Each structure stands twice: as C-alpha cells, then as structure tokens.
Amino acid sequence: MNKTIEINGLSLFYREAGQQNKETILFLHGNPTSSHMYKELMNLLKDDYHVIAPDYPGFGFSSRPGIDEYEYSFDNISHTINQFIDTLKLNNFYLFVQDYGGPIGFRIANQRPELIKGLIIQNANTYLEGLGEWAIEIGGYIQNNDLEKMNTYKKHLVSLAGLKEQYITGAKDTSLIDPSSYYLDYAFLQRSGVQELFLTLFDNYGTNFEKYEEWQNYLRTYQPPTLVVWGTNDKFFNKHGGEAYAKDLKDVQLHFFDGGHFMLEEYNADVALLIKKFISK
Length: 281
Description:
Layout: E1 2-7, E2 10-17, E3 24-28, H1 39-45, E4 50-54, H2 74-87, E5 93-98, H3 101-111, E6 116-122, H4 133-143, H5 147-157, H6 160-168, H7 179-189, H8 194-203, H9 212-222, E7 226-231, H10 239-243, H11 245-248, E8 252-257, H12 264-280
Parallel strand pairs: 3-4, 3-5, 5-6, 6-7, 7-8
Antiparallel strand pairs: 1-2, 2-4
C-alpha cells in the first residue's frame, strides 16, 4: 500500500505491506532514488514480514520544501525519520540500509540501539577502506578545491546519462536493469527546485566521514546481528567496505554479488531468500 503521513508539516510518502504483527523490516533508500528501489524486494517479503519504506523529504513522492524551509543534512533527515518511526510506533525492527540510507540509519541505530533487532546492509559504507573509485575522485575535487571539475561532476550526476551510469556500471547483466528506475529518478529531479535540494544534501555528505568511528563503536558495543549483501563492482563503495563489517561484528553474514551499486535490480530474489534465512535464524 502507498501511504502518506504528516511529520511537522511535511508529507512523507511511504510504502507498506504485510501484517503488523509480524517482524518489521524498515528500508531506508539510497541516492538518487527513493523507496521505489525496494518495490520488488518488498513484494517478495510481504507475505512473511511487515515491510515499510519511506521517501526522505525532497525525494520521491514526499514533500520537497525549499532549502530555506528545511535543512537538507544527514543529521536533520535522520531526525525526521526518527519522528516517522515514533509516529508509526515502530518499537523494534530490522533495518535495511543502502547508500544514503547508511548514514541516516546508522545515526538512528547509534542514538536508539534498543530499536534495532538486526541490520541488513547493501552497499552502505561505514569504513574508509570501503571508498571506491568515484568516491575517491569526488574527494580529490573537494580536497584540491577544484570547483570546475566538481561542478561538472554535479551536472553529470543529475543528468539522465549520469543516473543511468550509476545503475548499469558494474552490473553483470544490464538487460536486468529496469530503465524505469533511472527514468523515474530523472523525472523526480526535473521538478522545480529539486536539483538544488538534491545537491545541497550531496554537499553535506562529508559530515558522515567523521562519524565512521562512532558507528563502528556502535557495532562493537551492541553487536547487532547483521546480514551484508554487496555488489562487488560498486564504484562508490568497494568490496573492502562490505568485508570490513566482519572486523567489528561477531554475528555477521557476508554475501557478495557480481553487481554494482544497485545490485538489487539483478538480485532481488536472491536477497529475499537470504533475508528470510537471516531473520528465521
């Protein structure tokens, strides 16, 4: 079911399926997409679990207030998702995170560890050794204050070609990548003011690196059972980022796939089976 809920004057869109008396999985989406990225996976899981996935402010079908009305930072979006969790009375759940969902989800888990029954991590980075080619390239532009190359990259990032590149790069079989995924992302970005919101949050991404040690300490301290499913050809977050979780976690399962940043496009059925085994254990 597709629903909306009001949070401090914001209308948050979310997808929800399954029965609320079953184990809950909260899905936090990546960039530049929305809860749409989980649509097929949620359909595969809905008979066994209560599955729920919100769109962040400025993303998907949620409200998109201007930057003078809402602070597009990872701190503030995690605060909004915390309010979403409380409003829906999600008292404990498995947390599935990908890309941007990582820094948003780890902020929540670190602040409220009692909520988290387990983690499911898909190409969401918490270790410096996990930074891939594209992340290092972008970091070089910032470090060298190369505004021209940075602005060129940003323009490409919000273009249809740039969005498609994020989906197909590293994919084993590009015929399995649904074009509607990146065309929908592109359509959302064409709405008035949305690219400004998108790039404002993108510029805030550097605030996450200083929290890596804090999140690693959360993992070491609370030892949440964790399932890692990772596309090994991801140019943003490489395989080392997935492997690194085993340094701090005792109960962790690592599964690597011949895919890219959006490996679910190819491996939804495989990941659904792994989730069922993980939660049943």
